[in-house]
Amino acid sequence: MTTLQSVPALGTHPASGSLPSRAETREQLSKATYDLLVIGGGILGISTAWHAAQSGLRVALVDAGDFAGATSSASSKLLHGGLRYLQTGAVRLVAENHFERRAVSRQVAPHLANPLTFYLPVYKGGPHGAAKLGAGVFAYSALSAFGDGVGHVISPARARRDVPELRTDNLRAVAVYGDDQMNDARMALMTVRAAVEAGATVLNHAAVTGLRFTRGRVTGADLRDSADGTEFGVDARLVLNATGPWVDHLRKMEDPDAAPSIRLSKGAHLVLKRTRPWKAALATPIDKYRITFALPWEDMLLLGTTDEEYEGDPADVAVTEKDTAQILDEAAFSVRDQQLSRDLITYSFAGLRVLPGGPGSTSKAKRETVVTEGRGGMLSVAGGKWTTFRHIGRTVMNKLAALPGRPLGDDMEPMARLPRKLPLPGIANPQAVAHRLMIDGGTPGPQMAADTARHLATHYGSLSFDIARLANENPALAERVHPDAPEIWAQVVYARDHEWAETADDVLRRRTTLTIRGLATDGIRARVEGLLAERD
């Protein structure tokens, strides 16, 4: 009879080797001539680089800061169809958004997205009645083929059981619908990883100092590595400007006379500790066009957002006292006061929506993607929304394939021939991964805590096993970074060696949730910086 023993059972595939050094990446970028240089490491540029690499092109992706370091990690963290678009009759747009939302959350990245039930409270004297919202959520669910259930209306008492801080004074009814939620920074990083696995070369913290021209055409860029000041260049047959709020700044490098092409809208959010668990989110109509959200997210509560035109330097965007007061005041329509204490705020952030130039209120503007070609042949892409990031990448690639003279069209596989729903790295059932981590993840040491296992599974998928191996090999890395957060020190080492983390902010704000939780203390920051300095 054999005796069953407790042995590590996280699979036999070893963790992949560390990333090349920055010097090695700079040398690679400098020596090759790329088919496509993507400038801008927000989700729009990342998605385009991913699809371009899939199509067989030689692709380079650079960003002046971190990947998803600006707007792409300052969203409402939603994958959604866009309920408010039904008011404008944009039925086809909502259906397309639902298709992309469900593709990402069910097939492309089920390990990074999770379904979220939304409650639309109907108050006496509010901008919409129960009948209208009931019909609206039914139509909304129909446009997603009822894949998230049938939109319906429930009683205030039923809603209060799921959202204990729901304000019930003058509450007439609650409409119900379904969408999805994500950690936007983690989703973006996994898409960067997918681009690299498809053959792209990437470098963050590398700022463009000038464009390269050949006979009047843009054929590359000069850059400076922010880490050590090294200057280098990248040559490319075609350059794509995907710099988001900075798109017109780069266009002026190409053509000093280029007219403004975009306008910016600031969206601010607050993150608060939750007083009690929530089983659903609140989407409260403020007026005919605007909705304010109260979202259970990462064991916290996310409130927002604002929508106002922004004309300052994109680098200076920040949450003001006016923003904070507005968000709390609007949340108070449906959230009880005890949940809205300023003492519960752990973090605030603001991002800039990129909208097509033109008149009218930013709150009514369409979130469409615009691709333009400049005098020097540089393509600039701006706009769009997180939910449709894959669609935007395909749209840009179709535009590249159809350019006059087909500079890249003959060297790339058409988008129609590529897998339509190629999964992101780490795809797995997160519940199954969490179970395996708790069963095997502590071997030979103590069992992994349930909240840490769930956190790893829903932020890394099957790549969690590589982090568990690091913790198994070095017990110090199995310790929590902070007692009140699920993250462990192995994630910091993993971010350094496998996720392009260069600074403490890269780790604490975007690879983990410590900054957003208000837990990035000076001591933790110093230890993170020490681990980053130990890079091979």
TrEMBL record:
FAD dependent oxidoreductase domain mapped to chain residues: 35-388
EC number: 1.1.5.3
An annotated Gene Ontology molecular function: glycerol-3-phosphate dehydrogenase (quinone) activity
Keyword Cytoplasm among UniProt keywords: no
Record keyword Ligase present: no
SUPFAM superfamilies xrefs: FAD/NAD(P)-binding domain (SSF51905)
GO biological process annotation, one example: glycerol-3-phosphate catabolic process
Domain Alpha-glycerophosphate oxidase C-terminal: from-to ranges: 421-517
Cofactor: FAD
Entry keyword set: FAD, Flavoprotein, Oxidoreductase
Xref: InterPro entries: DAO_C (IPR031656), DAO_C_sf (IPR038299), FAD-dep_OxRdtase (IPR006076), FAD/NAD-bd_sf (IPR036188), G3P_DH_FAD-dep (IPR000447)
UniProt region (Disordered), positions on chain: 1-24
Family to which this protein belongs: Belongs to the FAD-dependent glycerol-3-phosphate dehydrogenase family.
Protein name: Glycerol-3-phosphate dehydrogenase
Organism from which the protein derives: Streptomyces fulvorobeus
